[in-house]
TrEMBL record:
The active site is at K184 (proton acceptor), E191 (proton donor). This is 6-phosphogluconate dehydrogenase, decarboxylating. Its EC number is 1.1.1.44. Catalyzes the oxidative decarboxylation of 6-phosphogluconate to ribulose 5-phosphate and CO(2), with concomitant reduction of NADP to NADPH. NADP(+) binds at G10, L11, A12, V13, M14, G15, N33, R34, T35, I76, K77, A78, N104. The lineage of its organism: Bacteria, Pseudomonadati, Pseudomonadota, Alphaproteobacteria, Hyphomicrobiales. Belongs to the 6-phosphogluconate dehydrogenase family.
Length: 475
């Protein structure tokens, strides 16, 4: 039998769709799944693509079905399963074969896997894939980490399956070892913030203004024609318009308000904190998901403190919807600015030389946060490669100036009404602190020196580093 050019392990949602995508682009592919009946079902449903798929029941059969040097995509549950699968695969591989972990790995695990494989003659790639089920099937965004040479060996097949934006591939090599998985993690952190901010605006419309799901769907539909145009706004319109087949109610009204999370949001926050780069909107979004899961505690607390007032101040008049749209836009800029700032610091720390315009480019299509907005980020980082932060680039500073007053009005009104807007408020606080030349940390430095003689620098540059208190009283 003619051998496959590539193999794929893991035929759940992502792997099965990626395998069909790979086959559809003209590649012969061998597939394997730990539970064999999943492979049978996948093959049975592969339709016209069956001719290019070799279903395998054992690892030996799978490895043997691929032409060496073998590129093997591992698309399974992240974490320990990946180590188990790699260990099971390794004895059957030959020098030059490439294992590609395409799941949502923690980049630190990816770095450890690179280390473990260093002297084996095997090649490893850590690759972030975004786009969910549909992206995997018809074109995901692909973020590759590993040696540039290893990328060149798989570039053709990866670019053949990736999404396209204006005919440009949404697939790129981003740097060595953990670079691809780090960028995917921050993509997801931004995704968390984007989703949380949309949910907060939905909360204002639902609880503060009494609008129905259908009405809110219409509003998001309108916004999707403007500056907020994006996949997440598009699906928000759709999910709000959908009806529950069982009750006929709007679908979001029958879904429990407890959000799941698999780890990438939390990792984004942990890494940003480790590097000392504020990612306040992402932090607020992760915390909001955790708080959402405390349903019973929230129910008990509402009995003690009462529900929000259900009245969003109407001082906005006819400009209310425009203010909400602009507020969401301003906060979104804050979240992306934070995500890119975290990647810039990681790039320095891990010596990845991450190409910011390229990252923005490959997120323009295929991935969950895809939008027109990312084209503007591409252009801003191309024109200002050394900008300290996205918000100080000429294009984005103009957008912030235009939209920030709306974010301030909306956050103020929501806070007054008792409606929770932690991510919107965090983005606002970030802007306010970031653009304040003289902040209040002078007081913190004085306090630290008072209780711990930690010292401070003076504004006049004089060589006196302690205040006239405690053990530092004499300078
Ligand atoms: N779902 C999504 O929208 C996205 C997911 N991802 C990432 O892609 C990867 C795959 O995601 P998804 O398709 O949702 O599948 P899941 O994360 O639900 O993982 C299920 C797959 O993992 C396999 N698996 C689990 N444990 C082991 C093990 N110990 N050894 C071998 N195989 C194992 C399962 O095999 P079996 O059938 O035998 O149980 C099955 O094929 C994950 O890392 C996920 O985070 C990335 C982007 C989007
Ligand atoms: O990577 C993804 C999208 O980009 C996956 O859908 C991931 O599962 C999303 O994260 P979470 O499950 O924590 O919401």
């Amino acid at each position: 039998m003619e051998k496959a050019e590539i193999g794929l392990i893991g035929l759940a949602v992502m792997g099965s769709n990626l395998a069909l995508n790979i086959a559809e682009k003209g590649n012969r592919i061998a597939v394997f799944n730990r539970t064999a009946h999943v492979t049978d079902e996948f093959y049975a449903n592969a339709g016209a693509l069956k001719d290019r798929i070799i279903p395998c029941k054992t690892i030996e059969e799978f490895v043997d079905a691929i032409r060496p040097p073998r590129p093997i995509v591992i698309m399974i549950k992240a974490g320990e399963p990946v180590d188990q699968q790699m260990a099971a695969l390794q004895p059957h591989l030959d020098k030059g074969d490439i294992m590609i972990d395409a799941g949502n790995a923690n980049f630190r695990d990816t770095m450890a896997r690179f280390d473990r494989l260093k002297d084996t003659g095997l090649t490893f790639i850590g690759m972030g894939v975004s786009g969910g089920e549909e992206g995997a099937r018809h074109g995901p965004s692909i973020m590759v980490g590993g040696t540039e040479d290893s990328y060149k060996r798989v570039e053709k097949v990866l670019t053949s399956i990736s999404a396209k934006y204006n005919d440009e591939d949404c697939c790129a090599w981003l740097g060595t070892d953990g670079a691809g998985h780090f960028v995917k993690t921050i993509h997801n952190g931004i995704e968390y913030a984007d989703m949380q901010m949309i949910a907060e605006i939905y909360g204002i419309l639902r609880d503060g203004l009494g609008k129905s799901a259908a009405e809110i769907s219409g509003i998001f539909g309108e916004w999707n024609k403007g500056r907020l145009n994006s996949y997440l706004i598009e699906i928000t319109e759709k999910v709000l318009a959908a009806k529950d087949p069982t009750t006929g109610k709007a679908m979001p009204d029958v879904i429990l308000d407890k959000a799941g999370q698999k780890g990438t949001g939390k990792w984004s926050v942990i890494e940003s904190q480790q590097m000392g780069i504020p990612a306040t909107a992402i932090e607020a979004a992760v915390a909001a998901r955790s708080l959402s899961s405390m349903k019973e505690q929230r129910e008990a607390a509402e009995k003690i403190f009462g529900a929000p007032s259900n009245s969003f101040p109407m001082a906005f008049g006819p400009d209310l919807l425009r203010d909400l749209e602009l507020a969401l836009f301003a906060a979104k800029i804050g979240a992306y600015a934070q995500g890119f700032a975290v990647m810039a610091e990681a790039s320095r720390e891990f010596k990845w030389n991450l190409p910011m315009p390229v990252i923005a480019k490959i997120w323009r299509a295929g991935c969950i946060i895809r939008s027109q907005f990312l084209d503007e980020i591409t252009s801003a980082f191309t024109k200002s490669p050394d900008a300290a932060n996205l918000v100080v680039t000429p294009a984005f500073s103009a957008m912030v100036k235009e939209s920030l007053p709306s974010l301030r009005r909306v956050v103020a009104a929501a806070v007054t009404a008792g409606l929770p807007v932690p991510a919107l408020a965090s983005a606002l606080g970030y802007f306010d602190a970031y653009r304040q030349a003289r902040g209040t940390a002078n007081l913190i430095q004085a306090q630290r020196d008072f209780f711990g003689a930690h010292g401070f620098d003076r504004v006049d540059g004089k060589d006196i580093h302690h205040g006239p208190w405690g053990s530092g009283a004499n300078g």
